[in-house]
Give the backbone structure.
Amino acid sequence: MGDTARSKCKNSRLVTAITWSLAVGGCADGTGPESTRVTVPTESPEVTVIRQASAWPGAAGLFIGKDLSHPKVVALQPLVAEILSAYGNPHDNLGRARVLRDWVARTAIHPHWPFHPDGNTSNLTVLPIGQQWADVNPVAWANFDSDSEFWYQWHFDGYGMLDQLLGTLDPRTGVRANDGMMTHVQGAQYRIKDISDYHYVLCTYQDFMLISLWEAAGLHGLLLSTIRHDPAAVFIPELAKWVYMDPTYNEEFTAEGSGPPLSPLELLDWSMAGEHDKLRPRKLSGPDWSPDVYISTEYHHRATYFADSHPDGMVVMGSQLNNSAFDSNAFTTRLVQVDTPRLPDEAPFNNSDVYTVVAREIAFPDLGVAVLDVSESDGNVEVLLLSTFPHHTRYQRSVNDGPWENLDRGTVTGGPRRGGITVPLLEDQFPAFARRVVYRSVDASGNHGIDAIIEVN
């Protein structure tokens, strides 16, 4: 990067080389995005930032998220453990997020009949014994409006919705009452008590139940808004991105049927390029009591978003940047839409009184550790870190893939939830061989976001 580009990052005292591989705003003062290498002559070792969360002005306040140590979150953890066990205990965050999505799709039943057409034998174990989907479909559609009004009472409180569905959970004792619409069979398996009394669950409310379960699994989720549908997204630290997951169609998407699952922004890009026909849904086999694929295109071609009356794909994409309240009555939210060419033509998303038009990185902010500056002072190399991970409590560091240690030294700014910290990069003499230093932002329960990875040569 030349002098002109370097001037964009004024007041940034970079030591030798910083590569902003994931950066949206790579300058120490957040003046503009950079994605190139910065070199400053020095006798110190070469410092290269391999990976980090992006940072920009106000980044630490964009997504507040839930406090994952809250008693309501903790109280859901036994249910999450039962769900994961029924699916063979997936070993990574992506696998856990998928399993919870599949469980919500199978348990919080959506009324859309292509998901369970008459004669379909998938997921019959959720119905009262002896009943079929042909019994459900007329009832579900007849009560569409009243069911929507029922779930709206809980606004965005997925915890309250799960209580209505499964029975009221006492967070002090962990005991769930038998006052829900479903009866407990075993483990994480529940069955509808009476299809005439069951309130079928529309997409928005499925999302909030799923987001609550993700939170109990240590993951942050977002409600999404696109053409005639509200899907969801979960932040997967290992992939360093929000991953699109839809409990309504029970799917995620890959590009041309291979590779990692796509993010909401990647789906937006494919759709705006007119290539959403190359996207393929990925679904999941069920739990031990119903090991089929639920909401499968084998049963109905409209059982996937892009084939269900959405010919242009996801040409708008928005998110809900919510606060951390657990009380439905106190809940406030900020609905945003990514600025796209089609947005002015798409109601209701073009309503500026409801949706704020924002940049992509604001609608889907990175969660983790950003390296704002690497500087040299009195011969010592220091790193200025910023956490954008919700309810951050401490930084940790690992050197050469060694154990994680808490950073109890350094100058901390920004308050108890998030803040910047300046710490020595390494506290002993630099060796002749390369060193790998990883910084992590951790909340009170030990959950974390994107790690900042630095190599020292």
User: Anything to note?
Assistant: Confidence is low (pLDDT under 50) at residues 1-42, 411-417. The first helix runs from residue 3 to 7. The chain has three domains: 1-40, 71-363, 368-457.
